[in-house]
């Protein structure tokens, strides 16, 4: 029997026009942006794979939900809809809404972390780690070693290494560990999932020592699909039930609803413990807004409540992850070095293998992201040394094992043809990697430097040296 193709479980009702640019215009735009794709104007971008955060296309039902926004300052009906959705699909008792994920991370860090505490996590996320440090904590990576190896085919590279966690408890004592931050579908590892078996075991270990486990549930629905597809005993369970089971082992979560939940803004902190939730409610009114809106408009909470329900539908999540896999497998077929297996929200190019002639301190991933933009107007993002920043104690650059360029797919936004254009551009760069030179810092801000840093090419010339004047990216040169 031949395999049949599948297609998206939706059709397009409204379109947004994109501006086509020339090679020369893109060269100028990236130079003006200091070779940092975060500093490009979105109007100069053709296919925007910078992030899957807040970039989803909402459904007609979500847009309709905006019209029933209750913009009362206190007790908005949409808050109660959202509370119902979080309880039903995530299973946590107390909901504290926030403007986005980092708002929830801020609250959680402030209410739980004391000066000198150590906060373990399965790889860091930029904002999560910074909030932990600003609250006086130190981050400790307890992810399995395979997560740092782009070529490892381990099906659950997001797993916590139980021995690393045990050793940390012995080393610093359980009383110095306020909680474990457990990320599902670990972003910085390439969108790699945790297995249910590992989630259960790590939660049992932590609870045995009186340590809470808080989920970073930002991409927990994508993780649930991988459990269904890869873990024994889960093939016949629904994504909805798997998500509930993941959450049931933990004590609460921080959530950036701008990802899984299919909205353009919003987040929440959810906690089972009433006393802890009380502390969070006391803080949310200082930093975000009243406890029944937390920085969101009523209509945004309604769109989120509807989006959460849509996010766990099998057809949706299967098509979402399937599009990422389409992009990833085409690149693998062309021999392009990418993080294996293909993750849930994006494809991650291994920039060190792609540009072996560019040394780490010339930021190969930053240079590759800039070059991809110049070639075809595709915007991607550096996830390597620039994102990792400096050691807060020594001030030295941190060079993580992974030096990646992330091609992140917005949900329900781009077509297969957009993927094909992206693939052709990457493959053409890969055929002549020597055209791309490294970068050095021109301006480096103190916190989360990847957002605002500016760079200059090391040899003073353009990123695509030999391509100067040449027509690359046949598309819109
Ligand atoms: N946790 C994870 C795993 C994330 O990926 C993000 C955001 C956050 C927390 C913070 O949430 O942006 O709503 O404040 N990730 C985005 C990205 C920015 O592009 O990966 P936020």
Overview features:
alpha/beta, disordered C terminus, Aspartate Aminotransferase, domain 2, Aspartate Aminotransferase, domain 1, globular, single chain, 3-stranded antiparallel beta sheet, binds ligand F0G, 17 helices, 39% helix, 14 strands, 477 residues, 5-stranded mixed beta sheet
Describe this structure in words.
By secondary structure, the protein is an alpha/beta fold. 39% of the residues lie in helices and 12% in strands. It has 17 helices and 14 strands. It has helices spanning 23-32, 60-66, 77-89, 101-112, 126-134, 162-172, 196-208, 220-230, 239-248, 274-287, 298-311, 314-333, 351-354, 364-376, 385-388, 416-431, 449-452, and strands spanning 47-48, 94-98, 118-121, 138-141, 179-183, 212-216, 252-256, 267-271, 346-350, 378-379, 381-383, 404-408, 439-443, 454-457. It has a five-stranded mixed β-sheet, sandwiched between helices. Strand 3, helix 5 (126-134) and strand 4 form a beta-alpha-beta unit. The longest helix has 20 residues, at 314-333. The model is unreliable at 468-477 (pLDDT under 50). Residues 51, 53, 100-102, 125, 127-128, 183, 187, 216, 218, 256, 258, 267 line the site of ligand F0G. Ligand F0G binds next to helix 4 and helix 5.
Low-confidence stretches: 468-477
How does the major sheet shape up? 5 strands, mixed
Portion of residues in helices?
25-40%
Architecture of the largest domain, CATH level 2? 3-Layer(aba) Sandwich
Neighbour order of strands in the largest sheet: 2-8-7-6-5
At the fold tier of CATH, the topology name of the largest domain is Aspartate Aminotransferase, domain 2
The helix count comes to: 17
In total, how many domains does the architecture comprise? 2
What is the CATH class of the largest domain?
A: Alpha Beta
**What value does the Rg take, in angstroms?**
22 Å
Please tell me the overall pLDDT.
95
Ligand roster: ligand F0G
Taken as a percent bin, the fraction of beta residues is 5-15%
Distance linking N and C termini: 43 Å
Instruction: Please identify which CATH superfamily of the largest domain we are dealing with.
Output: Type I PLP-dependent aspartate aminotransferase-like (Major domain)
| Class of secondary structure makeup | alpha/beta
Question: What is the overall silhouette?
Answer: globular
The tally of beta strands, per DSSP, is 14
């Amino acid at each position: 029997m031949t395999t049949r193709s599948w297609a998206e479980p939706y059709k397009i009702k409204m379109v947004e026009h994109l501006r086509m640019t020339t090679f020369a215009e893109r060269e100028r735009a990236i130079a003006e942006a200091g070779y940092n794709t975060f500093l490009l104007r979105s109007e100069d971008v053709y296919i925007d794979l910078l992030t899957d955060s807040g970039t989803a296309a909402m459904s007609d039902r979500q847009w309709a939900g905006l019209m029933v926004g209750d913009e009362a300052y206190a007790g908005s009906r949409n808050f109660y809809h959202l509370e119902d959705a979080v309880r039903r699909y995530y299973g946590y008792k107390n909901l504290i809404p926030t403007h986005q994920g980092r708002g929830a991370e801020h609250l959680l860090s402030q209410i739980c972390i004391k000066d000198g505490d150590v906060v373990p996590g399965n790889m860091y996320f930029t904002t999560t780690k910074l909030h932990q440090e600003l609250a006086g904590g130190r981050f400790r990576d307890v992810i399995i070693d395979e997560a740092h190896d782009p070529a490892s085919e381990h099906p659950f590279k997001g797993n916590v290494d139980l021995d690393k966690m045990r050793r940390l408890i012995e080393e610093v004592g359980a009383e110095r560990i306020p909680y474990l931050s457990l990320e599902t579908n670990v972003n910085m590892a390439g969108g790699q999932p945790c297995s249910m078996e590992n989630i259960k075991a790590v939660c049992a270990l932590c609870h045995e020592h009186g340590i809470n486990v808080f989920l970073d549930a930002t991409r927990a629905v994508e993780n649930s699909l991988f459990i269904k597809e890869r873990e024994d005993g889960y093939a016949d369970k629904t994504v909805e039930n798997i998500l509930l089971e993941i959450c049931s082992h933990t004590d609460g979560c921080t959530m950036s609803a701008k990802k899984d939940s299919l909205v353009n803004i919003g987040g929440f902190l959810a906690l089972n413990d009433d006393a802890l939730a009380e502390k969070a409610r006391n803080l949310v009114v200082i930093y975000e807004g009243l406890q029944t809106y937390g920085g969101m408009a009523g209509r945004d909470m309604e769109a989120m409540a509807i989006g959460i329900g849509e996010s766990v539908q099998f057809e949706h999540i299967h098509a979402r992850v399937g599009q990422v896999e389409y992009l990833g497998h085409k690149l693998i077929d062309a021999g392009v070095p990418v993080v294996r297996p293909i993750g849930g929200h994006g494809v991650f190019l291994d920039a060190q293998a792609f540009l072996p002639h560019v040394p780490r301190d010339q930021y190969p991933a930053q240079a590759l992201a800039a070059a991809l933009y110049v070639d075809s107007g595709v915007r991607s993002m550096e996830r390597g040394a620039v994102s990792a920043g400096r050691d807060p104690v020594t001030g030295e650059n941190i060079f993580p094992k992974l030096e990646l360029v992330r091609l992140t797919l917005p949900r329900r936004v781009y077509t297969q043809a957009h993927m094909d254009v992206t693939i052709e551009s990457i493959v053409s760069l890969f055929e002549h990697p020597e055209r791309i030179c490294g970068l050095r810092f021109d301006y480096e801000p103190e916190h989360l430097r990847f957002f605002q840093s500016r760079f200059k090419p090391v040899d003073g010339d353009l990123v695509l040296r030999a391509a100067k004047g040449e027509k690359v990216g046949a598309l819109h040169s």
